[in-house]
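Work package 3, deliverable 3.1, input record:
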Amino acid sequence: MSILKIHDKYFKPYKSRKKIAKYVSLLAQQVALDLGKKEVPLFIGILNGSFMFVADFIRAYKDQCEISFVKFTSYKGTTSTGEVRKLVGINENLEGRTVIILEDIIDTGNTLVEIYEIFRNKKLKQLKIVTLFFKPNVFRKGLPIDYIGKSIPDKFIVGYGLDYNGLGRNLDSIYQLTTRKMTNIVLFGPPGSGKGTQATILKDIYGLIHISTGDVFRYNIKNSTELGLLAKSFMDKGNLVPDEITINMLKAEVDKNTDAKGFIFDGFPRTELQAKALDNFLAEKGETINGMVALEVEEDLLVKRLLKRGETSGRLDDQDESKIRNRFNEYKNKTSVLKNYYQNQNKYFGANGVGTIEKITERLCQIFDTL
Ligand code: AMP
């Protein structure tokens, strides 16, 4: 389970499938125990949200029972509107029956009160309410809630039948609305594609922290730190620095910026292992990568650009064509797979990296503005 984006909002993992199954089976056991084997209750699920809960509940309920559904609309967006439109689906003659209402979640209780009143007028033997989730802090009604799977705080949740503006019902676990603080972008592209140049401009436009792993390594080499000495032999040949060293360094750089609005990662991740480590590291903070923005440029043009840069940059790895070619090999063998990695999460956004600096910035901004 990781952070999910549904419409315009982010949701973090809240209740796993396993936990939900535990609440559901406990509820079914309690109800069965209280009713006894002789009683054949009619369970009434409140659609749409309860369909998954009801399906699981009745499978966990081992005695004889009947099942029906009523439908009712009261949710719009992330807060209950309280507005009740129409209740459909009560056809059975319910006189003398034990009716048990199955709700996925009870918050204000507005919807439930209306339904409860309708059933109460049907000369039932008994009427009980079972809810998987209950928000005690917002419940404002005098109704008896007979069985509660789990009391939860007043935060919007989605999944396991519950939706956010129509989406999310099919998730098999529950996610909670989260207000994300950060915008985290991986600026991607082969060596020389202009990541560094663009990141320097974009970080100011968007108020983000720019972390270039190449720059951090070069800084360490210049200052002859232990990390610098370790990295130098790899970098000079145009090889990648080993993952473990790079990942630890990256984490330390992120943690130096506790108040950051977000990061532009430039030159990281460069391997699938690094990408996974970054995802896990951000997930621990309740954050995620919003997107990989890739500068797309042909290799031959890049070699020319790098050799030209080598005339002034002082970088050994820019001055020799064989080292440059080796960096491309590393890119093709280890780094280019990351396009797929982010594409699979619908997070890959390509931009044409040929043109003036201003034109390319403009193209990137168009993408950044959507992330
Ligand atoms: P760059 O400035 O991004 O072109 O990086 C220059 C060199 O630093 C690369 O050729 C690698 O040797 C090393 N390096 C930078 N970032 C990474 C990374 N994420 N993983 C491994 N090596 C890296």
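The two ends are 21 Å apart (CA to CA).
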